[in-house]
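Lab notes, practical 5.
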Amino acid sequence: MSADKFFQHIELLRCPVCGAAFSKLQNSLRCPNGHTFDPSAKGYVHFAPNAQPSRYDAALFEARRRILNAGFYDTVIDAIRLRMPDPRGVVLDAGCGDGTFTKALQGETTVGLDLSKDAIRLAARGGGPILWTVGDLTRLPIADGAVDTVLNLFSPAHYAEFSRVLKPNGRLLKLVPGEEYLQEIRALMGDRLKNASYSNEAVVNRLSERFSVLDRVRVTNTFRLSEAEASDFLAMTPLTFGVDPAALDASQLTEITVDTELMVCRLPE
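Output from the prediction step:
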């Protein structure tokens, strides 16, 4: 049954190898050039079988899910929701991670895509209508001009592919860290962190070269943390990659700043 949803929306999908449309061959998605992908019984399709292992592992995504479910990003989700089209139509969450944002912001038809198999396996738990896919941002398994909204939240981007899959009047909603994002973790890391400060202006400038930015919305909150929540924040952020967890004292992390900027964009006319 978990495979049926992919065949029901087969017109939305395209072969990531050659770009051809799929047809159903028994229980597989097969393009005219013989590229074949099998929906998993766990509710996802692996469109990037040659992907290299990622430093974003299952433990990171489990910690991130606990943080998201605890409500630290609820005002961010609300800001995104307010700026999505009505009706939402087809939504692609490009770089969806564990799928918590995807589920909160899904449309009539929704595709969640991430290069991490661990993330997609976690996202697909419990079933549901979302089309979960392991895939590469540079070769989206999505038809041209099929998507109403691309969500790109705390994730790398591929603007040429986003432009290809968006409808002419579609929207790209990109979320990036603000200058004070997780500043308490940066302070705790001290000299272990290569860059003690952060600016998103380079990201904004690159985005502006490919899309028209209609709105920029800053959403920022500072929260008190329990020690367990502090440990999860340390586990979920790439800021701590390469650092021995024992070298970081989670008890010193008593509050956290979630500072984000949301950019609402459209294709240039």
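Observations recorded by the TA: The chain has nine helices and eleven strands. The mean pLDDT is 94.
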